């Protein structure tokens, strides 16, 4: 994989309606992107798959949808007001802005040392001292713009879960160990380059806080690291492109006792020790009782859990798998991107997305658009499938071109209705990955598809 791949992918995403640059008619806005008709389907399918695994198929996890805007005290208690910052350094000459840690690591090029002072890797100019830059977006509630009305857009969904811990516990009547899952938007005032949808100002997180007995934290931590890794395989990512990376002690967040990242080999990411580029998809952290104890202290509310069996109260520890929806979508797209030679020696671009999460499941292609019987039969098939599946109907251009369009969109199956269909009540089923074609009876299609997408 190379960086050229990213250019091709960004262009395909725009061409086919996966991802568009944000606010494009006004010249765009850095690090913002919009998801088009196919992008929103893909994201919804991935979210649904996560939700099914994390909530529906488990007895010990329930869902939540908490608000983005919260009482600002939440962010004081969580440590975000004082700690959620990047160290920044500016060049006094060319005004470039760098993250201090990345600058020192040589990410922007070689830095020279003059009289013990580092100089700008871009122009050699003098650099400012490093200073903290809080990454939370601020705004105001109501008409007054003063400190009493200051609020933040949440930089993570997790705090909404901690705030609702007691209420969810009571209504769900769960016993520890149990978890609360949430999918929602988070906002971060990122200053380093975004790399398409890898790092954006506004993104979706899929987080689950799993509350456990303090002495069982290691076991549950290991359990979730392995569960979550396996989930990415089920999502369809190639095993050789993902890995687990336990954090070194010195890179752990202030609240974490242990953390393992699940990383994907994003072509633009920094090189790992194995010489391959790796970037974070998801972090699984042992957050201990850091959050609950801080909220208990700041809110004055008792957040202890009462253990009926031992008749004792304790503050649970928390294991948190925290995944980035947009990064996951990007990994799926990169993993799926293929260029191969077709039977005529021409390059075929195809997105080999796992059919279960592919935006369009099947495309109905009437061989000709001006034969009433064929159109009628095609429309009937279209209507019978669309109540259950996301279906596309395409009658424009040659069949070959239509197949190529669906290949680029990642549509796993195409159904071509031809003259024979009027007689044999069957259509040609064409497989995206193998390009093999076979006849299938119209009456069997629903069951066949259901089975494939199970
Ligand atoms: P990074 O080191 O890349 O900034 P992080 O360690 O700060 O990420 P977390 O706070 O652990 O990230 O957030 C959990 C997940 O949310 C990340 O694994 C990532 O997938 C996603 N995420 C975080 N920041 C962004 C962003 N700016 N844009 C898109 N996704 C993000």
Protein described:
- It is a single chain.
- This protein has helices at residues 3-16, 37-56, 73-77, 80-83, 100-104, 158-163, 165-172, 217-235, 290-299, 325-336, 372-386, 399-409, 419-424, 445-452, and strands at 19-21, 33-35, 61-64, 85-90, 97-99, 113-114, 117-118, 131-134, 138-140, 150-152, 178-187, 202-212, 242-246, 258-264, 279-288, 305-307, 312-314, 317-324, 337-341, 347-351, 362-366, 391-393, 413-417, 426-431, 437-441.
- The chain has 454 residues and is of the alpha+beta class.
- Among the domains are: 45-69 and 152-333, Bira Bifunctional Protein, Domain 2 (BirA Bifunctional Protein, domain 2), CATH 3.30.930.10; 360-453, Anticodon-binding domain (Rossmann fold, 3-Layer(aba) Sandwich), CATH 3.40.50.800.
- The strands form eight sheets. The protein has a seven-stranded mixed β-sheet with strand order 3-11-12-18-15-14-13, with helices on both faces. Strands 22-21-23-24-25 form a five-stranded mixed β-sheet, sandwiched between helices. Strands 5-4-8 form a three-stranded antiparallel β-sheet.
- The radius of gyration is 26 Å and the shape is globular.
- The protein binds adenosine-5'-triphosphate.
- Residues 156, 188, 190, 199-200, 203, 205, 280-283, 322-324, 326-327 line the site of adenosine-5'-triphosphate.
- Adenosine-5'-triphosphate binds at residues 156, 188, 190, 199-200, 203, 205, 280-283, 322-324, 326-327.
């Amino acid at each position: 994989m190379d960086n050229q791949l990213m250019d091709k992918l960004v262009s395909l995403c725009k061409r086919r309606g996966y991802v568009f640059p944000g606010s494009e008619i006004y010249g765009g806005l850095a690090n913002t992107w919009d998801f088009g008709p196919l992008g929103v389907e893909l994201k919804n399918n991935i979210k649904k798959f996560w939700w099914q695994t994390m909530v529906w198929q488990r007895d010990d996890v329930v869902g939540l949808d908490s608000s983005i805007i919260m009482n600002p005290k939440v962010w004081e208690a969580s440590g975000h007001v004082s700690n959620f910052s990047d160290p920044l350094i500016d060049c006094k000459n060319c005004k470039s802005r760098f993250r201090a840690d990345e600058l020192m690591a040589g990410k922007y090029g070689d830095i020279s040392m003059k009289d013990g002072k580092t100089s700008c890797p871009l122009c050699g100019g003098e650099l400012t001292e490093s200073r903290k830059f809080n990454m939370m977006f601020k705004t105001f509630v109501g008409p007054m713009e003063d400190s009493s009305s200051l609020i933040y857009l949440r930089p993570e969904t997790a705090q909404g879960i901690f705030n609702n811990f007691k209420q969810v516990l009571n209504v769900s009547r769960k016993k520890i160990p149990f978890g609360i899952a949430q999918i929602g938007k988070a906002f971060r005032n990122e200053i380093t380059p975004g790399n398409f949808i890898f790092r954006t100002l506004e993104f979706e997180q899929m987080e689950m806080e799993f509350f456990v007995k303090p002495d069982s934290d290691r076991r549950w931590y290991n359990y979730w690291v392995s569960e979550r890794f396996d989930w990415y395989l089920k999502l369809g990512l190639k095993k050789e492109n993902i890995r687990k990376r336990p954090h070194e002690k010195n890179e752990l967040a202030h609240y974490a006792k242990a953390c393992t990242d699940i990383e994907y080999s994003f072509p633009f990411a920094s090189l790992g020790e194995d010489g391959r580029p790796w970037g974070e998809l998801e972090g699984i952290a042992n957050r201990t009782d850091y959050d609950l104890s801080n909220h208990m202290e700041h809110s004055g509310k008792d957040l202890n859990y009462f253990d009926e069996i031992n008749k004792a109260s304790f503050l649970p520890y928390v294991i948190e798998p925290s995944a980035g929806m947009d990064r996951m979508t990007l990994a799926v797209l990169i993993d799926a991107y293929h260029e191969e030679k077709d039977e005529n020696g021409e390059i075929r671009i195809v997105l080999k997305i796992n059919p279960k999460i592919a935006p369009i499941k099947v495309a109905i292609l009437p061989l000709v658009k001006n034969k009433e019987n064929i159109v009628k039969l095609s429309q009937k098939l279209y209507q019978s499938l669309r109540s259950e599946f996301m279906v596309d109907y395409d009658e424009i251009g040659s069949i070959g071109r239509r197949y190529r369009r669906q290949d680029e969109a990642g549509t796993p199956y195409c159904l071509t209705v031809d003259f024979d269909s009027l007689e044999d009540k069957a259509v040609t089923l064409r497989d995206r990955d193998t390009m093999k074609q076979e006849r299938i009876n119209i009456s069997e299609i629903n069951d066949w598809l259901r089975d494939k997408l199970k």
